[in-house]
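Pilot study result, target chain (749 residues):
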Amino acid sequence: MRTSLFLLTASVVAGCQLMPALGAEQPSLVLNSGFEQGSDLPDWWNRHPGEDAGGNRHLRDQQVFHSGKASALLWSVTPHPKGEAGIQWNRYGIAVEGGSVLAVSFYVKTEGVAAAGAGCHFYDERREHLGFVPVRGPDRADEWTHVTRTVYVPANAKSMGFALYGGDCGKTWYDDVSVTPDPEAAARRAAVRARFEIPAEGDGRFRVVPAHSLQKIPRDEPVVEGTILEQVELCAARDESESFQLVVIPGGKALEGVAVEPAPLVGPGGKLDVQWNRVGYVKTAPPSYAVEYVGWWPDPLLPPGPFDLAADGRQPLWFRVDVPPDAAPGRYTGQVTIRHGDQATSIPVVLHVRGFRLARPGKLATPFGLYAFALARGYDAKASYDKVMSPEVYRRWCRFLAEHRLTPKNVAREYITTKQDDGAWYVDLTGLDQTVASLAPQYYAPYSFCLDRLPSANTLWKDAPTPDPAPWVDKTAAIAAEWKRRGLPSQVFIYGPDEPRTTDYPFLRDLYARLRKAVPGFPIMQTIGDPNPQNLVGLVDIWCPLTARAETDFYRDRLAAGDTLWTYVCCSPKPPHANFFIDEPAVDHRVLFWQAHKLGATGLLYWCVCWWPGLPTPASGGPAFPEVPIDMADAGTYQSFKCNGDGMLVYPGPDWTPYSSLRLEVIRDGIEDYEYLALLADLVEKAKALSDARRPDTALLAEAESLAHVPDSISRTMTDYTKGPQDLLNHRRRVAEMIERLAQLVPED
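Predicted structure:
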């Protein structure tokens, strides 16, 4: 449980030689950016292919434009040949300065295709290709849509090729294209890099650099992203946890036995303990999406204790303060001391406890898979889970997730018995007394774990051309009857066939109609990739589309009709969509929950947190993690989907001990962000319902209502969202301050 009202205090960067250029208007590296000059084709731009063929056309369109009197149209009629580049406008040989930062901006409009977007190719002085940076377009651009991205130029780059791409079999218009140097961003980037630089030689005196919880610190790669902090100052509500990092950087020599001594934070309510972990690293493999680098990425959080540090590496330390539900509001202070030999460096820590408490259980359903068989397989490769893992051990893992505001979505299906005898189903749910019955009331949000899961859609036709739904319905009805008889908690749903095809819909209609009749009162949840599953309307209660398919009129209409909306991610979608991959920026993991709130979703589902095939787990019988490093090329689902860390948010520590991850901690922050927004929205509605004499000022209510919505500056679409943690943290701070103001004016329930 961490929150993220991390008040970042930026330092003054001294000695910067770029000051004369800061704030000055920078000329665009792209000429004829509005495509105003030219006749049928715009001047300056080149086209690819060089000649129109197969009905495909490049045009300077004087009928459709965003501004001025023209735009550039890419009109694709036939798909481009496999292995060749698609239709585009481009220009190569554009001079750039190595190590600089570019601000890329354009407007795009499409008909019949998604916006492919732009891209930058970089070359060194010998014209050797240094890499490609995509500037993705949105999934939909029916109207003129603005796209911006910051692009970092490789240090040894001398020239660039810039291209605007069109999708196959559709029309794509571009206008108002700009590629300008951003000296302010370059200065900030250089300052951050210097701040975390590892000296090649020195007297062995280490440095300690504060960092916030939304920064992934490379082990030995240059650190070029982040906010420079001079102090650690945190804010949290009651019943939250807040985190920060301290990065130990050696002074030219290896360090042995570095000690960490966090002192309690002392304030109005007494003492708050500071917990800490050493941040570990896993080796990523080349993914199918653009990343900053491939190599050692920070993720597992390892137990506290003295540590060694190589002369050429950094060691981030992760700190967490758990704020009790009854903590007294106010200012708590303390410090963290790092010791090695005769050197001791202390960093002050300040935590402001807010005057309100976050609800637990919260409003957001977070069904994340903690499959007992997958968990047990990491510790014993052969035996069934109930033979090697007691319900108490499984409960400990469930509670670990619950403390991170997550619900094991399959918790109601583990340690139970269901069997059929002469057509009748026998159901024993006794095993749930130790898990569901004891954890759900305190931790689990509404409709967050599944009563029963029907066979996956990809197996529907495996055994019969037309499967009979009756056995499935009978089994689910038997489980539901026993569930109600035992008075088990009500936060349950029925998990429909996962990710069905549109050809499965007639069968699903029959199945769900029978289920509704046989099992009334238990909502049916449907994961789905279809942006418009109209044929299932009236039968599905909880719609759970992939995030890449959730921004449609269909789901907006279903919300308006009273249905429930969730979203989910798995091995897809991939960047530029946000996901939980190890080699994505931390802000991507957190912004998913802001996007869920903006969509009106009340749940975010994830398939599994402990999918460990290929990892050096205790089941191997030999040396295991963390003594043996993890290589993602061998792990999880990488071989199938070329993404790092899919299905793996928790690591297998020794003796059945869950090791958290940086991503899991950030996910908890995102959930708490959602709860902040939900709490403020509730307060606004309560305030509106007050009598005229007691209702808060109209201007204050309008401001509060605006803050309870996710602004476009944080997420405009599912692919156009902030990469700057400060945008998110600043808005969250304002939301918290408004909650405190309204809470004083609105009576408690």
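One observation from the pilot: Confidence is low (pLDDT under 50) at residues 1-23. A full batch analysis is planned for the follow-on phase.
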